[in-house]
Design goal:
Number of helices of chain A: 3
Strand content of chain A: 35-45%
CATH architecture of chain A: Roll
Helix content of chain A: 25-40%
Structural class of chain A: alpha+beta
CATH class of chain A: Alpha Beta
CATH superfamily of chain A: Hotdog Thioesterase
Oligomer: homotetramer
Low-confidence stretches of chain A: none
Distance between the termini of chain A: 21 Å
Radius of gyration of chain A: 14 Å
Order of helices and strands of chain A: HHEEHEEEE
Shape of chain A: globular
Strand order of the largest sheet of chain A: 1-2-4-5-6-3
Chain lengths: 132, 132, 132, 132
């Protein structure tokens, strides 16, 4: 899949569009996606909601797998673990997925998330299952 | 805090309102919240986006802590682990938090999530840190 | 499998025997296992090593699956998340597994761990994959 | 702390010695430790027990923090998530910790684990809390 096709795939998901996620780049082992901070993504402390960051982790891995399998394998998330390291006040959150293991059934990836100053803002490990 | 105050707190978070989360009930050890499925919450497989379910896990624990501390302690999520057990096609996702440990610094809770048939759809463990 | 057979299965694993794990009870949805504290299980702070508690989480779920499938399905752990809530100084650590979802490929369970005072000392979510 | 002092610290923990863990190298952002496979570390499938690998994840992060703080800060593990990617049949398991965030209260690290062929065998994210 080309970058353009991955973007269409991602933005074809209603929730990704609602959140404002954009696919930025393809790599040999994953993708980079980004999400600009906006008022509607805030929590009560005024920073980016933890659920938004978890959404990016999920999407970065899912789009990474679409890129890897050329969009031909249906997949579903089975689990995710995310550690929040720094709050996002403003600017863009960038998420870079690295496929660590693509097995016959399960695929595991790491997602590193960076704030506008390029500091690590969160790290996630996400597992997807390949459906038949 | 009363149920009404918890609702105002939750809906005062722009992202919670965007997702459509509603606080349903207070318990001695947590709260129940719910989120009706809607078109904009879907992923490319047509089911509820994993990011939405992660958002509910985060919110169920955060509102549970607000209830426990009567809204007096500022908190922030430090990590979350969620396992997806069943896809949500339609109906309401219900999330029930249980505060397992309220420490001096860290609070850990479990969130059980149920589909419209009352089947367990996901389970999460969420950690919050109490800020000074 | 009977309780005696589950014990033999568990103690047939060299590492379980080294750690001193004993299967205590079968339930409809899991098992209870226990491990007495001993000098060799300590870390540098003098309490039970986090690795020991993670081992119990893994075993409680594995033996729970052996009980569920009557020992007929080969399985392997794919991931585990454990939160440490209270240090174990002395006495027995008791771990109770609850199978939350037994799927065609993946099985997810929760393990609650208790100290000698019956206080929750740790909680884990463990995923196993059924091998062909 | 020197490499020798880190080794003494690690081997001073009874459980680390029981498992056979050895500190191999110090890095600017963590340490490398190793554990040779041995009969007593096996599970019923004949491969390295998941609890052993979880123990290495915990230790790699703990020793990495001792190196970072020169052994001056008491710490305790608060949570760990480990994904098992490949079974360890024989040879040495090598675990390399990377401190991702050293905060005022919480420290988060990633631990990459490799089998004898240098393939990624497991990945973990571990959180420690700094005690007063």
């Amino acid at each position: 899949m080309t970058l353009r096709e991955l973007r269409e795939l991602s933005e074809g998901m209603p929730f990704n569009k609602l959140v404002g996620i954009r696919v930025v780049r393809q790599h040999s082992d994953g993708v980079t996606i980004a999400c600009p901070m906006s008022e509607r993504l805030r929590n009560s402390a005024g920073v980016m909601h933890g659920g938004v960051m978890a959404t990016l982790a999920d999407v970065a891995m899912g789009v990474g797998l679409a890129s890897h399998f050329d969009g031909r394998r249906p997949v579903t998330t089975t689990d995710m673990k995310i550690n929040y390291l720094r709050p996002i006040q403003n600017g863009k959150l960038v998420a870079r997925s690295h496929l660590l293991r693509v097995g016959k059934r399960l695929c595991v990836g790491r997602v590193d998330m960076f704030d506008a100053k390029r500091q690590l803002a969160a790290v996630a490990i996400v597992t997807y299952m390949l459906l038949e």
